[in-house]
Amino acid sequence: MNARIGVWPYVARAEYEYASMLLVRNRSADRPRARALLANALTAARALGMRRLESKVAAARVPR
């Protein structure tokens, strides 16, 4: 819904939070999705000047 109405800061945060949940769940099948979500969140955070979120996303690590 956030994407449909154009509230991109909330989209970026939601992608980061969802990726974080997937990483905590720690299933190997979730890792590709977590990587994609983090990549999207990082791109958006940089574009929107969301420095704190950018730092959080950059610090997130997806196990191989």
Task: Give the topology, please.
Elements: H1 2-5, H2 8-25, H3 31-48, H4 51-59
Helix pairs in contact: 2-3, 3-4
Outline the structure in words.
It contains four helices and no strands. The protein has 64 residues and is mostly helical. The chain has one domain (2-59).
Mean pLDDT over the residues: 91
Q: What coarse outline follows from CA principal-axis ratios?
A: globular
Give the total of domains.
1
Tell me the strand percentage band.
under 5%
Rounded to an integer, what's the Rg over CA atoms?
A: 11 Å
Series of H and E elements:
HHHH
Distance between the termini: 31 Å
| Strands, total number | 0
* Biggest pleated-sheet summary: none
pLDDT under 50 segments (min length 5)?
A: none
Structural category is: mainly alpha
How large is the count of helical segments? 4
Helix content: over 70%
